Fold Putative methyltransferase.
Amino acid sequence: MSRIIAGIIGGTPLASVPGSATRPTTDRVKEALFSRLDALGVLARARVLDLYAGSGALGVEAVSRGASTAELVEADAKAVGVCQRNARLVNDAVGRRAVTVHRGKVGSFLDTTGAGRHWDLVFMDPPYPLGEDQLSRVLEALAPHVAEDALIVVERSARSPEPGWPQGLQHFGERKYGETRLWFAEPADPDAAPAPSGSAETVAP
């Protein structure tokens, strides 16, 4: 059973999506990811966007650890219901509507998002069958909606190629945990030198 690992409601079990409609991030990968986010200092008061949210585990974990808000975007009806249940856990704990749930396709959500909306931390855990061209289009739609110092985390199969980063985003690191690879990106600095090769780190399963 998945759980919130740390923060104001650390240890609280999370509802899971029944069946195989989504591919949840394992607690092991989630713990490693949030340890890195804590080290980078990006969680405090962050505005979080959790795309292809599944159960919403990443978004609610972020709020438990100090993020200001999290928006969960999910298309599957069963998963949306689970997101709503998990959102209530955190909202009740913090005493405000910190986590909101949007039912719909990620592309449509981004296409209809107002120009003035920006997020500080974005999680993307698309289903593995999502094509690389589709993923690149979603990243392109996302790029105008990230804050100047935002961090984007893309979770993929370890066998998947590097995402195609659009103009406005640049890859700066990756981590491999068994069959899962996390790609990290940030808004592109047009004056910065390209990221050095060999930035990947493999963590044994």
